[in-house]
Each structure stands twice: as structure tokens, then as C-alpha cells.
């Protein structure tokens, strides 16, 4: 009898051809589009960053507008008395920004010092007792010997991180007037949420020591940033002071272009950090998708045509064998039909398309893993198309095939599918079990059970007694139609052909178990 096509040089040629197709696609995509799309993405991200940084910069500039406004009337105030006459006007100018609710002032005349806080409630300005941390800051400004007019500091208070900004002036009667703002950064963060809420970028600010001034996660305000402010490998923009790098954002959970730019507000020397998701222009993305779709569809059609051809040849060989082996004609006919149905299930285009979809996501991001994926996909189809004539296979080969198949599933489901647990007795490796039996049970477990990160699926393959025990935790799906248990019927038919061996399966303590007896003498039915 002529050797089966899947054992001949033609099948090797087919496997090599499929591998070259996928490798060629990966190489073409990587070399042709990667640099272009990355450049476009960075350019797009830079434009989004510029818009976001301008908005944030303008907002922070407006926060200290009250100090600027109040300083405009200082030349008209020549004495302590003049200030008290203009106090309401000064308060209105100092707290002119709608989100700055608290300010303060101090007037020193000789040994007399007056401290007052100013609180804005609607359109009213109320005076109050100076707080201890404010008074301590004011005192530090009074003893300063330099001539600086503007000063500022950051203070951790129980409710939040506060920024105290001060403007110091000497009046004509030798009195010293200090005006100040008290900015609560937790309240300020609430306001910043509403600014550019539809933008694609997220921004936060840190001081020179790396402490968060603002952050979308409020609990981080006032805490130190993990790692250095700027990493090695950052590239500078055209202004020579702003730089960027591509990192994974812990907050957005995706790759971002991270921009760093100085933010100087009065005497405060801060750094603004803007995270912009990696994007590409729509036209370029569509062009890439078009090329990818054409390549993958063409390759898929080639694979399907080749598989259909080998299926037809394989079916014809089994029919010839049925006619020749008259002594066990009926049993072998049932066995052949069951095996054929099983292989048709394994070659179902849905499995292939799912595998190609997984490969599509790997080619650009993880080319090394994509290459390994293609090799394993080729091995799976080679194994499926290369069964032994008597319908049995060595335990070691069956476990190895199931492991290759599980790798493809793991790429698709990720953490939702726990690692495959294998505990095989070496003495069992040389025994036999039905062809594709372990893979059938693994596939059934994934098909009939919920597979999610919240409810991971655990599958184990272990030697037990005179057989192999395959188990999985039971978390049945409600949307799976009855498949007629074709896989289990296939396994039962094989065991019936080889004697008094029975397939045992069922549910025990919330676990589905299936016991595959070992066949030690496959030559005698």
C-alpha cells in the first residue's frame, strides 16, 4: 500500500511552506510599517501633549493670578491704615480665581504683627485666625534677609499637600506687608479633573525632589514618585528642554509616550509629566490593517486548501483499509468514522482563525513569541494529520501534543487559563492510549467551562494506577450547545476495540475527572 501522504515528503514540503508564509508576513510587516507607524504615533502624541501641557500651564498660571492682581494696588497703599481701608479690595483681588478659596496676610509695624486668614464663601470674604502652619511660614518670611519679593514652599498638612505662596512688600511708613495664597492640592486635583476631561492624555506634576504635586490617584499626592524622574534613553523635543520616552503606564495600563517638561510657577520649580497613549493616524492604521488582512486571509486559504486535500487523501486510505480487513470490518468502520469526525473537529476553521487572531496580536509586539507560536501551530497540525494506523499513540507523544495545543490556548486566554499541570510516571510513557485523547479532554474543559481571570480554569494530567487521570475544576458555561459527546464516544469506541477496557469519567467534589486506561499490547485487539 502506498504510504499516507502525511508520512511522505509532500507533507514536509507543506509544513515548510506554511512556516515560510507566516515568517514572510512577520518580516514584511515589521520591516515595512513599524518605523513609520511609530514615528506617526509619536508625532500625534506630541501634538496631544502640547495641547495638554498648555492647558495645565495656563491653569497653574491663573492660580497665582490673585497675587499679581493684588500687587497692582500696592503702590497706592502707603501705610498700615491705608491697607485696612483697602482690605476688602485686596481680598477680592487676592482670591480672584474661582477655585482658590483661602489666602492670608500679615502686617508688621515695629514690634506689632497682625496675622489674618481670608476665606472666600460665595461672594463674601471672611477673616479668621491664622493657622499654625501658615503662621510658621509667615514668620520664616519675616526673618529673611534677601530682597526676594515672591517666595513659596510645600507643606504636608493632615488633609492634603498645601502650597504656600507669598508676596512681600515694604510700605512707605516702613511697615512690611506680606500677602499670600494657601493652595490645597487635593481640592485643586478635583478641579483639574474637569479641565480637558475629554483629552486622551493624563498629566501629573512633581517637585524637584520627586514628590507628587498633583496626580489622578489622590492617595499619591504628597508622596514620592517611584524611580528616577527621568530615565536614561529619553529623547529631546525641538525646544531642547522637553523630553519623552515610551513606557508602560501603571495608571492607564497601556504603552504611552511620556513627556517631561519644566513647570515654573512663581518661585516653584516643578516638572510636568504627560502620558499620551501610543496612537497612529487613522489612514495609516487602515492601510496597515488592509495589508495584514490580505496577507492573513491569503495564508489561511492556502492552509485550508492544503488541509482539505490531505483530509480527502486520509479518508480514502481508511476506506481502502476497511475493505481489506474483513475480519473486523464493522468495528474498524465505526472507529474510522469516529476518528474522521474527531479530526474534522480539530481542523475546524474557528480554531484556526482564533489562532491566527492570537498570532496577529503577537507579530508586532512580541515577534519572538510569534515565531514560537507559528512553530507550535505547525506541529499541532502535523500531529493531527499523522495518526498511527491502529488509532493509538504513545503516552509521551500524546502528553507532548496536548502541551503544544495548550500553548496555543494559553496565548489566546492568557491568565484566564492556569498553567497546565503535568505529573507523568516514566513507566507510563511507553504505554499507549487513544490518539488525541488527552487533547480531546483539554478541549472539552475549555469549551464547556467558564475561562476568565476571575475564574481561571485549572487542568492537570497525572499518572494514577494503570492509567492517566485528566481533571479540571468545574465551572460550567450556560451558553454551550449540546455537542452529542462526540469526543467521549470516540474514546469509548477505541477502548471497545482493544478489549475489556472502559473509559471512566464523571464529577467528584466539584472537579470533572476522566480516567484513560493504559493499553500495553496494542497489536492484539
From TrEMBL:
Signal peptide: none annotated. It holds the Pfam family His_kinase. It comes from the Bacteria. GO terms for molecular function: phosphorelay sensor kinase activity. Keywords: Membrane, Transmembrane, Transmembrane helix. The chain crosses the membrane at residues 12-30, 291-309. GO terms for cellular component: membrane. Residues 339-417 form the Signal transduction histidine kinase internal region domain. PANTHER family: SENSOR HISTIDINE KINASE YPDA. This is Signal transduction histidine kinase internal region domain-containing protein.
